[in-house]
Amino acid sequence: MTKIQISSTFDGGNIKVQSLDYHSNIRLEIRPDNNSDYFQWFHFRVTGAKGLSLKIVLVNASKAAFPDGWLNYNACASVDRKVWTRVEETSYSDGELIIEYTPSSDCVYFAYFEPYTLDRHHDFITEAVTHNGVKLSSLGESAQGRPMDCLSVGNGAKNIWLIARQHPGETMAEWWMEGFITRLLDYNDFVSKELLQKASFFIVPNMCPDGSFIGNLRTNFCGANLNREWNNASLEFSPEVYWTIKAMDNNKPSLCMDVHGDESLPYNFIAGAEGIPGYTAKQDKDLEAFLLSYKTASPDFQTKYGYPKDQPGSANLGMCTNYTAHKYNCLSVTLEMPFKDNANFPNPKIGWNGDRSADLGASALDAISGIIDFI
């Protein structure tokens, strides 16, 4: 009989084995982020279990960063690392996440959300720069010395910045980027052609390459939550943000989109910068126009559910959206997508996934097109 083995020593992997004595009671722990107490992302491989009824228990789920995220959540599984489906026999009970699954193969992967590996990032960047007019630059280096890839394209006067994966475990953000960039570089697409004439795009698909490779949920190699570092970025602790701000200073944004995932809310929504000091009527008008434009562009986007607005003057300027809106007097937004499913259009077999995130990214071109003339 083949012995069951579990591994996570690969790109984006995260798990610790507590007990493998019985296939009906496999007990695992999610490893915390480097130099941090945050954890929730998991990604591991199980071999030698074909045809066995597995019961996998993540024993420390209640201590995760967002334990409410486990409610009505279904884990992701794949036997080929290409097609990921939801494990509908996922439950959260007595502080433990329980995944029950019978593999059809001797090799199966489980993950918190459909992974987007650093290797795929490099493949996609390499393909993107083969398109005419696309430039690749490194804004600087991450804490571990990885390049901060930035794609730039377009000839317009308005600078549009898009960044993703400040929180590396929010892999839907880079799937969104893949959909956005793929359509932007389709020069037969009328919306893309028009936007590239009116705007210059600066796109950072992965703000935290170290955390992505290590398998962190929320922090870089140093333990920094990048989306709390914008008003205090340093080369020692948060170089990823430091170098991005330097580049933004040279190409001040008219629009900044920071793309994320939310563990608890099963919706796609946007958070604005209403609480910054000096928030202007124009910023508010631009935000309302953008929300309407995105809602028109995609049925997967909605405005009913989201985060409560900050009270005037109370916004945390360590967050990208608040910092950029305040410093550059621009429209700046945070896009959130679910780890679970879109409750408005549920698909229990796949939940919210990479393809759906990419479609939402592609539709963002229509949303931006609707406001480009007056931001």
What's the β-strand tally?
17
**Whole-number tally of structural domains:** 2
Shape: globular
| Distance from first to last alpha carbon | 65 Å
CATH topology of the largest domain: Aminopeptidase
- Topology order in helix (H) and strand (E) letters: EEEEEEEEEEHEEEHHEHHEEHHEH
Kindly report the name of the CATH homologous superfamily of the largest domain. Answer: Zn peptidases
CATH class type of the largest domain: Alpha Beta
Radius of gyration: 20 Å
Low-confidence stretches: none
Please specify the SSE layout and strand pairing:
Blueprint: E1 5-7, E2 16-19, E3 26-29, E4 43-47, E5 54-58, E6 76-78, E7 85-86, E8 90-93, E9 96-101, E10 107-111, H1 118-128, E11 135-141, E12 147-153, E13 158-164, H2 172-184, H3 190-198, E14 199-204, H4 209-214, H5 239-250, E15 255-262, E16 269-271, H6 281-297, H7 320-328, E17 331-338, H8 354-369
Helix pairs in contact: 2-8, 3-8, 6-8
Task: Provide the descriptors you would attach to this structure in a database record.
single chain, 375 residues, alpha+beta, Immunoglobulin-like, Aminopeptidase, 2 domains, seven-stranded mixed β-sheet, five-stranded antiparallel β-sheet, 8 helices, globular
